[in-house]
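This protein record is not my work; I was only asked to verify it. The record follows directly below this note.
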Amino acid sequence: MCGALALAACGGGDNGGPDGGTNENNPNACGDDVQSVTAQELFDSVINGTGACTSCHYAGAGTATNGDLVMDSVEALKATTGATTAYAITGSTLKVVDPNHSENSTMFLKVAGGSTVTPPVKGPKGESVGAQMPQGLPPLSAEDLKMVKDWICSGAK
């Protein structure tokens, strides 16, 4: 997955997590510094622009390569919004992309480090999110990671 985040406090003032709780101490949650990013901007700059995502996450790559996550077009990127993630365990609220909730979006959590780094990045209920993405490549730059986060936190549109 790839690394990227204009509303004051994500979601028009809703800075709470998916369960309605606060995310003041969660570094993966949307904050007050969100910049508006469109799906087209994210796709052009990070998803396709760096090649770090589309080198694996393309139609026809197969589950072993892309985990059934396809991001080879703006339309495919938008389709990740609200999609269930393979990491959602019983009672989990994790989504591939949960608009306005980066802390509940495996796309962001995986590019932010994944559950294989120390300390591990986990979902809001302690769920593992698997390995850091992009797999086998250098991590996304801080700028690209912020752009992913800004896209999610500005509504993932």
The CA atoms of residues 8 and 22 lie 15 Å apart. The longest helix spans residues 142-153.
